[in-house]
Design goal:
alpha/beta; 10 strands; Aldolase/citrate-lyase_domain; metal-binding; 45% helix; Pyrv/PenolPyrv_kinase-like_dom; TIM Barrel; eight-stranded parallel β-sheet; Pyrv_kinase-like_dom_sf; 2 domains
């Protein structure tokens, strides 16, 4: 089974021997919010970097018109050094690697110093193409977006490609590609989200990243979307506006009753020294303890607890 340096249980990257690049990659793996900012809007870069988002994605793809791709690269390069001072991992979303714009992005990225924490690869459909991006960029980890029927079909091989850190769902493009029309709960997309969750687990990747919520001012919709992502086992969500960041963090955090349950399960397990034990009339064994530990880990990753 494919394994990565971020397999569950692996030691975190830190200490005197760890490079800044390694630390940024680790933060990308643990990020809850990944905020897009168009590469041709440099006046928004600092606001995005100081928004509280765990990761900022400087976009060269969908949010940038074809005529502005070159100027977007220039703007990112010009602001790159200043953005380092914000101490937030920076990811660049390139154009599809089999396009002329994507080829230009890859050539340009080779000269960007320091290098980004990761590269987001849109319309991922080929393991070979993902591996080529990883190799060409001297081992930068990738965040492939699954946003087409071909990407869905290729999921097992995409998730196993060298250099993949975590998978992201691009459900808006996926709906357009497949012709799906969703209900309010997006139940038609459950097979896609489930398949990404399974591919993530089988390849021991960092938790998957769910797609954007396009209703920028609808906090209730954003909360519902983020909590659905959590139910599928995802650990993060793509954001398109700074005001979405805090709500995503809050929605992904455990509630106080969930935390209290987790504490009691872990305490009961410790008292039983690993043997099965009953708590509130429910059997507590290893799977239940693991669930409790995941709940505690979610709390550790968040400064917010939901009530």
């Amino acid at each position: 089974m494919p394994r990565t340096h971020l397999e569950a249980g692996a030691m975190p990257v830190h200490g005197a021997g760890a490079s800044k690049s390694d630390a940024q990659t680790q933060r990308c793996a643990q990020a809850r919010s990944l905020l897009f900012v168009p590469g041709n809007r440099p006046e928004r870069f600092q606001k995005a970097a100081r928004s509280g988002a765990d990761v900022v994605i400087l976009d060269l793809e969908d949010s940038v018109p074809a005529a502005d791709k070159g100027s977007a690269r220039t703007a990112i390069a010009r602001e790159w050094a200043a953005l380092q001072a914000c101490d937030v991992p920076l990811v660049v979303r390139i154009n599809a690697s089999d396009t002329a714009a994507g080829e230009d992005d890859l050539a340009w990225l080779k000269g960007l110093n320091p290098r980004p924490a990761a590269v987001m690869v849109p319309k991922a459909e080929s393991r070979e193409a993902l591996a080529a991006v990883h190799e060409r960029l001297d081992g930068i980890v990738t965040l492939p977006i699954i946003e087409s029927a071909a990407g869905y079909a290729a999921l097992p091989s995409l998730a196993a490609a060298p250099g993949v850190l975590r998978l992201a769902v691009g459900h808006i493009d996926f709906m357009a590609d497949v012709g799906i029309q969703c209900d309010e709960q997006e139940s038609e997309l459950a097979p896609l989200r489930f398949a990404v969750a399974i591919a993530t687990r089988l390849n021991r990747l960092a938790p998957a990243v769910d797609g954007v919520t396009v209703q920028i001012d609808d906090e209730a919709r954003l909360r519902i979307d983020a909590q659905r992502a959590l139910r599928f086992g995802y650990g993060a969500k793509l954001c398109i506006h700074p005001r979405q960041v805090a709500m995503v963090h809050q929605a992904l955090a455990p509630t106080e009753p969930e935390l209290e349950w987790a504490r009691r399960v872990i305490a009961a397990d410790a008292a039983a020294e690993g043997a099965a034990v009953q708590l509130d009339g429910r059997m507590v064994d290893l799977p239940v303890v693991l669930q409790a530990r995941r709940t505690m880990a979610r709390a550790a990753d968040s400064s917010t607890v939901r009530t």
